[in-house]
Amino acid sequence: MLNFISPHLAINYFLLAFLTIVGALQFVAARHKLVGLALVGTVWRPAWGCLLAVVLIVGAFVCFFADTPEVFVPGLAGSELALLFGAAGVCALAFTLIVSSVVHEVQHRERSDPKAGGRLCQEAVSLQQLRGTLYLPEDVASLKDEPRAAICALPGLSEETPSTHPLVANLTEAGFIVLAVDWGPQEGIRYPAVLGLLPSAVAYLTRRDDVNPERIGVLGIDLGGDLAIRSAATDPQIAAVLAMAPFLDQSNTKPGLSILKEMSYLEAIRWSSFRRRGELVAELAVLDSISRLGSRSWLLIYGDQDGIVPVEKARATLDEEVAREKLKSVPGEGHLSLPCSRATSSLVARWFKTVFSDQYSV
Amino acid sequence: MMSLDFQLFQWINNLAGHNAFVDGLARLLVNEYFFTTLMSLTLVAFWFEGQDQDQRERNQRAVLRAIIALFVANIVLKLCNLIYFRPRPFVDHEVNLLFYRPTDSSFPSNPATVGFSLAVAIWLYNRRLGALLLVLATLFGLSRIYCGVHYPLDVIAGALLGGLSAYLVVRKGRFFDPMISLVIKVGHRLCLA
Known about the structure:
The complex is a heterodimer.
Chain A: H1 7-32, H2 46-67, H3 78-111, E1 121-127, E2 130-136, E3 148-154, H4 165-173, E4 177-181, H5 197-207, E5 211-221, H6 223-234, E6 240-244, H7 265-272, H8 276-284, H9 286-291, E7 297-303, H10 311-317, H11 320-326, E8 327-330, H12 342-359
Parallel strand pairs in A: 3-4, 3-5, 5-6, 6-7, 7-8
Antiparallel strand pairs in A: 1-2, 2-4
Chain B: H1 2-13, H2 20-30, H3 34-48, H4 53-83, H5 89-92, H6 110-123, H7 127-146, H8 152-172, H9 177-189
């Protein structure tokens, strides 16, 4: 039978365990940059997280010993201690995950720029299976005389994945026509139907007068990267492919705890709930498709802080020589922040420019 | 053997009562709350520790095996207590008692069993953290002698019992693997492992 001796002792021990476990979680969050566990906003300032951890742990012990005279008389036995510590652990974990999700959400709202997208010249595209937005460069009037290179951009497949807007803006500024393709509703995304998405976008672009059909590239992010590689392997009209943080392998679609480096816990659960992601990656067989790209230009980009597909893991999946030549990592960026970073945007625009200017001028 | 045990006990316990600060510190460390909570916290942190998934899974296996080792050691300890009862030092001798008077058997030491089962299990996976936990477990055991509630032999027996349980669970307890793998798999699905 459990005997908690006195409610005061039991409550105080529960509070001690609760606060110290929250402190331990903050220490871990700061050490491994786990935003999904961090209570002090962004853990990119690890010192704050460590400070909070020390304050919570030391403070909880001091308060416990100062306020609990029962410590020095016969007290809780091992089973009661284990039960209270376990219960406090569950509560502390739930508290940390919920509060950090709220903090993350608030910070995310503060960071998002509602005016983004206002300056670009764009038109909606809606043709049978294809839905998307076409972005044209500022010198749109001269396009008829001089057809341009075009890029099909396919974003990541989840609400947590940020938009391709910064990339699109940079590419149009560099003179490219960009077609940002929509995946459509998640429940409708199935193999092999999904294979028709990029070829129909490429076909749409080749029919346009302002696009040079020999200079069409694809840019895919996250699962879009896997699909871009697979589509390029079978569609000879795609002249260049750039995949940003593709999964490459089915095992990378189950990142476990590492996903908390990228997003809050509630977002992580929502992200993980799309179970078909793993099946799609397996069916797309990206590694086989890479070998079928032949002499066409292609590049993989990862953030070196990617918590979903670690760059080392992606590198290990590829041949050593291929990885050295075709895989670039962007310092300081994660899976979700990669498409939003200026370094990535300029790298992408520069790469497409180089690829197409090797053959033609953009 | 018992005489040597008592001599050693006297040597350590006679250090008590001379320095108020050291006595106060010993009273703080000797109770059931400080070291056990600190060691449990280390396990919590160790669960989330690791640079990549493989390293983290290894650490999580260490944590789960440490918990199993603790459970196994406690069962053996209860059986020992049923078979053999050794009175506490303060029952038969005049001692410097800095703690309350526990009524259960002195042999083997329960705190030493708990401390060493956790510490040795972690040590078998991670030498640095394991060494830190071994220091904590040793301090825990020594503080029990210093405060007059255990003989050295009780602490040594508890350490051996805890250490042996940990060794057997970690090195020979392959039949725990399916259960451990299941827990880690569920944790992985919940984005917590």
